[in-house]
Amino acid sequence: MNQVDYLRISLIDRCNFRCQYCMPAGAELDYLLKQQLLTDEELLILIQEVFIPVGFTRFRLTGGEPLLRPHIVELIEKIAHLPQTQDLAMTTNGFLLAPIAQSLYNAGLRRINISLDSLDPHIFNQIIGNHGRGRWQQVWEGIQTAYNVGFNPLKLNVVVVPGVNDHEILDLAALTIDKQWHVRFIEFMPIGNGDLFGDRGWISSANLRQSIRERWGLTESQVRGNGPADVFQIPGAKGTLGFISQMSECFCDRCNRMRLSADGWLRPCLLKETGQIDLKTDLRAGISTKELKEKVQEILNIKPEINFKQRDSGTVGAYTRTMSQIGG
Ligand code: SAM
Ligand code: SF4
After folding, report:
1. Where, in this chain's numbering, is S-adenosyl-L-methionine bound (predicted)?
2. Strand, coil or helix: what is 233?
């Protein structure tokens, strides 16, 4: 069985974007109140006294938009400097990144994924649901700054939505030719905006690879990450292309992760709501971290049965939380 040692930690459910694939159109989301969020102190207790002792050593900070979390630099410093932390990464939309990139790096963050779904500022604004001027430019500056500061690998995440940004696949893939950037195409999932998913559907990684292969050729890369991406390379390119195919392929058997929401719910499987436990309420009720550790160990023991494992139907069920609330 796979070692489950990777925890995705959502720091906040709020976001300064409203990406059409991630949140439902129109409807107001009920954001968590400040007192519902795990505090920094509670999060550190859970990491040190619950997650690390049961084998978690790799952490990714996500959201919502993690850079909206107050005191993010200090929090990163504390997690990065725990002796057992082997890897600390972040997924961000990059909008607030440029001015803080150096501080994040100095605090010990070494890996960063930035979402960039379009190279066209107009389409970008449509996707993020915000028509303010200069949004795309600001994210682009965030990407450049992060790269110059030394974030390597620097990964760009692209969710491909038919009829929205699929015509840009080749341009996005071309970013990997001259720069050591890693562009990762993520199949659109029905978590967040089921209506858009119902209207547009999704494009398989195999189809994307076919388009790229026809243009430049494509080889399987020697680089293989720990995660679910299948990694390829345009011949001679400096960077790589990753394909995350959770709709068309089933990688549940090699799943190595769990997710902790900003309000302290531990979620064993992205695609299923089964088996979640509310660690924050337990912690605040005074339940000892020894007992919490046992609860998490129990979830780890039954995770193989909880994992989704069936992917024939294309869509995978109803979700009470959006992707922004789960953390991707
Ligand atoms: N705000 C940050 C960002 O956008 O990078 C972090 C949180 S976001 C929920 C994490 C990842 O989930 C992003 O790469 C985003 O593109 C992806 N995501 C959101 N909704 C998705 C969906 N319906 N299908 C596939 N990926 C999705
Ligand atoms: Fe916000 Fe990230 Fe979701 Fe976009 S994908 S709405 S940036 S949480």
Report:
1. 21, 64, 115, 189
2. strand
